[in-house]
Structure formats: C-alpha cells, structure tokens
Amino acid sequence: MNPENYYEVIAAELDRYAKVPDAVLMEIVTRDGTCMWLWSNEEQPEWQGEEITDRELAARLCEPCPVRRLCLEWELRLAGEYQFGVCGGLTGEDRRALYRVWRARREQMNEDQDGGQQS
C-alpha cells in the first residue's frame, strides 16, 4: 500500500469519531490509554531506557492500546499540523502527513452536511 492510500485508510477509520465531542475523547483516552495508565501508575515499560526509534515506540506502546484510534483522533484535533513525538500509534511525521488527508475529509464531510453552502 502506498503511503497516500495508507493515510486515506486511517483517515476513513477516524470518520466514525467525527461527531464525538473533544471532552468525551479526552475522558476515554486519559482513562483507558496505555500510555496514560503507565504514567498515572508511575510504571515504566520493561524496555524503558533502550535506544528505540519513534516507530518502535509506537509499535511497542500504542499498537496494543485499546483506544489507539480515539487517541489519534483527539491528537489530530488538538495539535493540527503541529505533530511531534508518538501518539495514536504513529510518529509525528506520519501524523503530519495523515493530518492533511484527515482535514480534507472533515472539510468534505462539513460541506456535504451543509449541502455545499458556506456559512
């Protein structure tokens, strides 16, 4: 799968969260997110201190997270195109590329809901 298709697939998966309020996303992610659980319980993963890339960190920490896509949706809304570090299973570089696709889909969704009329 080429990168553009990859980001399109992820952005399409996130469409289901488009109408979820920010506060609800925040509550779910901070309550159920793997990284939040580690942080709030002051636990460190067994690989803490290893030299790993952001991609490896995303794979190890985010991949098994039950709220990974909700976290990604929340991060895209909060940070916009200013994405750094690891969040939602993607690196900042990946999220910056995804953001452009995600934003275009949201703008199209809004236009479709408004019947093509601008307010």
Largest sheet: 2 strands, antiparallel
Strand content: under 5%
Radius of gyration: 16 Å
User: How many helical stretches?
Assistant: 6
**What is the N-to-C succession of helices and strands?**
HHHHHEEH
Strand order of the largest sheet: 1-2
**Which runs of at least 5 residues are low in confidence (pLDDT < 50)?**
none
> Cα distance, first to last residue?
38 Å
The tally of strands reads 2
Q: What characteristic shape results from the CA principal axes?
A: globular
What do the pLDDT scores average to? 84
Account of the 3D structure:
The structure is a single chain. The chain is mainly α and 119 residues long. 61% of the residues lie in helices and 3% in strands. The chain has six helices and two strands, in the order αααααββα. The protein has helices spanning 3-14, 22-32, 34-40, 54-62, 68-79, 92-113, and strands spanning 86-87, 90-91. It has a two-stranded antiparallel ribbon with strand order 1-2. Helix 2 (22-32) packs across helix 5 (68-79). The longest helix has 22 residues, at 92-113. It is globular and about 50 Å long. 26% of the residues are buried. The model has no long low-confidence stretch (mean pLDDT 84).
